[in-house]
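ok so dumb question maybe but i'm new to this and my supervisor (M.) told me to 'just get the structure for Universal stress protein' and walked off. so i did the thing. is this what she meant?? sequence i used:
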Amino acid sequence: MVGSRQAVLVEVSDRPLGEHAVRWAADEAALRSLPLRLLYVQAGAAITLPDAEPESRAHTWATHIHARGETLLREARDQALRHHPGLEIDTELASGRPPRVLREAARSASLVVLPTPRHAVADSLFTPRDEADALTGHPACPVVLVREPLPGVPDDAPVAVGADGSPSARPAVDLAFEEASLRGVGLVAILVRTPRDAGRTDALAEARADLSESLAAHRERYPGVAVRQDVLVGDPAAMLASASRHARCLVVGTRRRSGLREALVASTSRSLIHGTDCPLIIAPAPSAP
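this is what came out, is it supposed to look like this??
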């Protein structure tokens, strides 16, 4: 088992995207000097059935499930160690509803990485669908939704971040600068104005000034990160999704007041979950004052 340090948690999957998620999580753990926790969840079936007869069908099925899960975890561990020898790794084989198991595991994680497309799991990680799955409070760590990278995106592609200057965007900007610094790449800060807002006199000039001011402290803290500022006009989801085609990852924030379900299910966030072409990092909501 890993020590008291909060690990980077990744859901191990038997889908091809699972390998990309494990690689992303292993890289993050190594960059942040944190342990890596590999979690495989067998949905809707018990891993062990102590009351079942050894010759019974139930016992045979449970044994098969356990063996399959152990194989996937072993393969994921081997993959992570190939890229980062010596990385501290913990594995866990669990059973139950994946959203519930993942939400519980996220309580003690520094970062949660999920392979996509598994949107139902991603949605319900933040907000329960019934009382039995109720989760007190909000996940306090970032969540990364990893999909297969687009061909032609270079290794030094920048980190993109939605930066509208609101309190909910601040953790996203913090995380984006940290990620860019750790990865040794640049950062693109994107502020999107709707056509109605942009139609006011000097609206875009004000937006550029606001964006520059909101990034000033981060520029001082991360002098090695090259920053580009883009003020765009259009639908926020469409503009951010378009930017994701050329980015290493896209970082967005959430709003605590409206709840994470509202933030994710709202049109912009929902479109980003389903429409980004790079890993989507959802920063935690800012702490209540």
